[in-house]
Amino acid sequence: MKRLILISALLLICFNAFTQQEQAKAESAFKNATFISFNTNIKPEQLIGSIIYYKEGKKDEFDYFPILKASQIEKIEPIYNNEILFSTMVNKSTVTSAKYLAIINVNVATNYMLEVIVEDVLDYRAPSFAADSEVQSQALFYARVLKNQGYIVEYVDHVNLCTLTSKVYAEQKIEGQGSYFVDASNKTYGSNDEFSSKRLISLHSVPLTPFVDVFKVSKLTDKLSTSAKSMLNERLSNEALAEKAALETKEPSYEIVDKFKLVPKKDLLNLR
Fold first, then answer.
1. Burial level of 52, CB count in 10 A (0-12/13-18/19+)?
2. Where are the beta strands (DSSP E) in 56-127?
3. Residue 33: helix, strand or coil by DSSP?
4. Within 10 A of 256 (CB to CB), how many other CB atoms are there?
5. SS3 118
6. 90-127 pLDDT per residue, tens
C-alpha cells in the first residue's frame, strides 16, 4: 500500500507540472470561438452555415436559422481530428477559470479533484463568407433585415465538436477497491464513480453587422456589385490583419450558451 501511495504521489507531481501548459493547449482550441454549448438536443451539422442573431447585451440568448442551399450543404463533410487536447487532474480553481469546463462546476467542491479528458472529435467548415460571393449575398441579405430590427448578426462558418469526459474524486483515505491518487502534499483522493461524458460544441462565426451597408439591394437573388465586393474585401482583409495581430494576446471571449432556437426564415422575412 505504501508503495502504491509513493508511486501515485510521484506521478501526480509530474502531472501537475504540465497542468498549466495543458490547460493553455485546451483553451487555445476554443480561444476564437464565439459560443460554446453543451446542449444535448442540437447536432453540430445543424448549426454550420447558419445565421445567428441576438440583441445587444444578450449574446448568450441567440436564435439561428440555416441560409445555405441543399447543394451547398451536401458538400460539407466532417473533418475527423480525434486528438486529446487535455488529460489531467484539476482542482476547483482550474475548473472555475476554464470557461469550457463550466458544465461541471457544480460537481467540484474545494476539497475535490477532477479527472478531465477533452478530446477534439471533428470539425464542420462551411463555405467561407470572405471568399464565396454566393454566401456573401445570402448572409448579407438576412443580416440587413435583422440589423434593421436592432439585432447583432453573425455567420457560422466553423463548428467544432469535442467530448468532455470527467470523474470527480473526493478527499478520503484509501479503502478497498476504487480509483485513488495522492497529490504532492500527500492528500489522498478517491472515487468509485464511473466517467461521465458530455458533448462540447463550439461555434466560430463571422460578424456581419459591420458589412451590411455594402449590400443595398432588397432581393435575395441579387448579387453584390463590383464596388461592393471591393469594399467588402478591403474590410475583411483589414479585419483579418487586425485579428492576426491580436491573436497571441487575445483573451477567450466566447459565451457559454445552452438555450437557443431554430427560427423559420419565412417568419424572419415578415419582420421587414
1. buried
2. 63-66, 79-90, 112-125
3. coil
4. 13
5. strand
6. 777 777 777 777 666 555 666 777 888 899 999 999 99
Residue 8, Cβ neighbours under 10 Å: how many? Answer: 18
Determine if residue 49 is left, alpha or beta; phi over 0 gives left, psi from -120 to 50 gives alpha, anything else beta: left
**43-99 tens-digit pLDDT:** 999 999 999 999 998 988 899 999 998 888 889 999 999 999 888 887 777 777 777
Amino acid at 167: K
CB 133 within 8 A of CB 224: yes
What nine digits make up the cell of 267? 417568419
Taking CA atoms, 99 is separated from 11, 17, 90, 198, 202, in Å, by 27, 21, 14, 15, 12
Which residue do the cell numbers 464513480 mark? Answer: 193
The model scores a pTM over 0.85: no
The answer to whether 114 and 166 are in contact (CB under 8 A) is: yes
- Which amino acid would we find at residue 157? D
Residue 240's SS3 state is helix
Contact partners, residue 12, CB within 8 Å, separation at least 6 = 89, 181, 182, 183, 184
Helical packing angle, 133-148 and 226-246, nearest 10° = 90
Secondary structure (3-state) at 156: strand
- Give the side-chain half-sphere CA count within 13 A for 268: 22
Count the residues in the chain. 272
Counts for the chain of helices (H) and strands (E), in that order: 8, 11
